[in-house]
Design goal:
The protein is α/β, with parallel strands linked by helices and 508 residues long. It folds into two domains: 2-161, 3-Layer(aba) Sandwich (Rossmann fold), CATH 3.40.50.280; 219-493, Alpha-Beta Horseshoe (pyruvate-formate lyase- activating enzyme), CATH 3.80.30.20. The protein is 40% helix and 15% strand. Strands 2-1-3-4-5-6-7 form a seven-stranded mixed beta sheet, with helices on both faces. α10 crosses α11 (252-264). It starts with a strand and ends in a 12-residue tail after the last helix.
Length: 508
C-alpha cells in the first residue's frame, strides 16, 4: 500500500526532536513491503501547502499522523498542541477520504479522547511498529482490524481497543536520517536520536513512560545500538547524537556495555544522554562516558529534600544527589538538572533545601563543569498516573475536569508567592539556575540557534545557558522584567481545572 506518514510536531526551537518514533514505524512499514512517503512538518514554512503537495503527488491509500505531545508541559507559558493537529486532520479530510490513523505518545495517553477530538478513523497505541503493519495488512485483505491488539476505533458508537502486548524491543532500526532531514535539525541545534531500550521500571508517581512504554524494560543488544550509531555516523555525519531513553543508566550494566562498545569502535562521535540516574554517577561511570564521547547529560531528581523525593517515588535519597554532584564536579561534563517544585509534600522549607543544595554543590562558576539547572513550578498531571489519583483525592482535579486539557498539581502546603521569591532570590546569584517562567524567552531561541550554528558553539545549546545567565546577572538584566504574575497564573490554571481549595485564597 502507499502510506503517507506525517509528523505534526512543529516545535522548531533548539530543543526540536527529530521524529524517531514515526521513523521506527516508517522503517517497519517499508520493511513489510509498503511504499512509504514521510512528511516532516517540523521545519516546513507552509505546512498546509506541504500536505497538499504530498497528497497530490503520492496519492496515498492510508495516512498515518503522529502526535508527539499534548502540550508544552509549562504551567506558566502553556501551549496546547492538539488544536493545531486537529486543523491538520481537517485539512487532510478536504483533500482525500483515505483512512487516517493516529499514533504517537500523546495518543497513547488518551486514545479515545484524541480519536474523538481529531475525528480520525483509527488510533495505534504504544509501540506502533507491529500493530500499524498489521492494520495495513488488514486494509489490503479487506478484513476488519478490530481484533488487532493496540489498534483502536469506534464501533457502533463505542470506543474499542484491545490491549497492546509489549514483548521484546521491536526488531529493526529507526534509521531517522533516511526519513527526515537531520541536517536541518542540526542547523537549529538539535541532535540525531538513538534509543537503546523501551519501558521504565522506576515508579515515579507523575511519569507517563509506564503508560506509553510499559513497566518492563525491553533492551536492545548493545552491539545493535552501536551498529546503528556507526551507520548514521558514516551516512549522515551528525555532529551530535542523543540517547533518548527515559533513563539510560538503568540497568547500569546495559549502559556500560553500550559505552564500552562505542569506545572499541575506530570512529569518534559526540553524545548527549537523556536520563541519568544519580545512583549511577560515580567516578568510573563518568570517566567511561567521557571516553565514549559523552559531553553532556540530563538528570531529573525533581527535589533535593528527602521527604519530597520519597513522595515522588524516585528510589534514591539526597545523599545520592550529593555523591553524584561531587563526582561530576571532578569532571568536565556538563549536566542539566531538572527540579519540579510543588509536588506532594512540598513546602517552602523543602524548596529551600533544594535551593541550598543547588548553591552548595552546583554553583561552580570559575571552571568546568558548568551545571545547568531548570526549576519548574507546578506539576503536569495525567490520567492513569498515581499523581492523578492523589490530585483527585486532594481536589486539584475532579470528575468534571476535562482530561484533554492540561491539568496541574501544586502542593497546598506551599506558599506560592513566597516560593517565587525564594527562586528568584537564588537565581539572582546563581547563573546555573534557569527558572520555568523564563521560558517566555524561547521566542528568540531560533535566533540563538542560528548564532550558535554560525559561531560553531558546542551542542546541545542548553550547555551555554549558565553563561548567558552569568552575563545577564553581571549586567543587572537577569530580572530587569520581573515575572510578577507567576503566582496569579498558577492560581488561574488551577481554577480553570476545577480546583477551589486554599491555594486560591490570595487570588486577585
Amino acid at each position: 500500500m502507499r502510506v503517507l506518514l506525517i509528523n505534526t510536531n512543529t516545535k522548531d526551537d533548539p530543543l526540536a526532536a527529530a521524529p524517531i518514533g514515526l521513523s521506527y514505524v516508517a522503517s517497519a512499514a517499508d520493511g513489510a513491503g509498503h511504499e512509504v512517503c514521510f512528511l516532516d512538518l517540523c521545519l516546513r514554512w507552509n505546512i498546509f501547502r506541504a500536505i497538499r503537495k504530498s497528497i497530490a503527488k503520492f496519492r496515498p491509500e492510508v495516512i498515518g499522523v503522529s502526535i508527539r505531545n499534548i502540550d508544552n508541559v509549562n504551567m506558566l507559558h502553556p501551549v496546547f498542541y492538539l488544536p493545531e493537529a486537529r486543523d491538520i486532520i481537517s485539512f487532510i479530510r478536504t483533500l482525500t477520504d483515505v483512512p487516517i490513523v493516529l499514533g504517537g505518545s500523546a495518543v497513547t495517553l488518551n486514545p479515545q479522547g484524541i480519536l474523538e477530538f481529531m475525528k480520525a478513523d483509527y488510533v495505534v497505541v504504544s509501540d506502533g511498529e507491529v500493530p500499524f503493519v498489521k492494520l495495513l495488512g488488514a486494509f489490503e485483505r479487506g478484513e476488519t482490524p478490530e481484533t488487532i491488539p493496540g489498534v483502536g476505533m469506534i464501533i457502533q458508537g463505542k470506543f474499542h481497543c484491545l490491549p497492546h502486548v509489549l514483548n521484546d524491543f521491536p526488531s529493526g532500526r529507526a534509521d531517522v536520517g533516511k526519513w527526515t532531514d537531520t541536517g536541518a535539525y542540526a542547523r537549529i541545534g538539535s541532535s540525531y536520536p538513538i534509543q537503546t531500550k523501551r519501558g521504565c521500571a522506576e515508579r515515579c508517581i507523575y511519569c507517563t513512560y509506564q503508560i506509553i512504554e510499559g513497566h518492563g524494560i525491553r533492551l536492545r543488544p548493545p552491539r545493535d545500538v552501536v551498529d546503528e550509531i556507526e551507520d548514521a555516523h558514516y551516512r549522515f555525519n551528525p555532529d551530535l547524537f542523543e540517547i533518548v531513553d527515559s533513563v539510560f543508566s538503568r540497568p547500569k550494566d546495559h549502559a556500560t556495555e553500550i559505552l564500552e562498545e562505542i569506545c572499541r569502535r575506530p570512529w569518534k562521535a559526540s553524545f548527549t544522554v537523556n536520563g541519568m540516574d544519580p545512583r549511577s554517577l560515580d567516578g568510573g561511570c563518568l570517566d567511561l562516558m567521557w571516553r565514549a564521547g559523552v559531553r553532556s547529560f540530563t538528570l531529573s531528581p525533581e527535589s533535593a529534600s528527602d521527604s519530597v523525593i520519597g513522595k515522588w517515588g524516585k528510589g534514591f535519597v539526597r545523599e545520592d544527589l550529593i555523591r553524584a554532584a561531587e563526582a561530576i564536579n571532578k569532571t568536565r561534563l556538563t549536566p542539566f538538572w531538572f527540579f519540579l517544585i510543588g509536588g506532594p509534600g512540598e513546602t517552602n522549607e523543602t524548596l529551600q533545601e533544594t535551593l541550598d543544595f543547588i548553591l552548595k554543590y552546583l554553583k561552580h562558576e570559575t571552571h568546568p563543569p558548568y551545571h545547568n539547572v531548570n526549576m519548574f513550578m507546578g506539576v503536569r498531571v495525567y490520567p492513569g498516573t498515581r499523581l492523578w489519583t492523589i490530585a483527585m483525592k486532594e481536589g486539584m482535579v475532579n470528575r468534571e475536569t476535562d482530561p484533554m486539557q492540561p491539568c496541574w498539581y501544586s502542593s497546598e502546603a506551599l506558599d506560592i508567592d513566597l516560593a517565587v521569591e525564594q527562586m528568584i532570590r537564588t537565581a539572582a546569584i546563581c547563573p546555573e539556575l534557569y527558572l520555568g517562567f523564563d521560558e517566555g524567552y524561547l521566542s528568540v531561541a531560533r535566533m540563538a540557534s542560528i548564532l550558535g550554528h554560525l559561531y560553531r558553539l558546542p551542542k546541545p545549546y542548553w550547555r551555554h545557558l549558565w553563561g548567558l545567565n552569568r552575563l545577564l546577572i553581571k549586567s543587572r538584566l537577569r530580572f530587569a522584567f520581573r515575572a510578577n504574575k507567576v503566582a496569579y497564573t498558577i492560581r488561574e490554571q488551577l481554577k480553570q481545572q476545577g480546583y477551589s481549595g486554599p491555594l486560591l485564597k490570595n487570588s486577585t
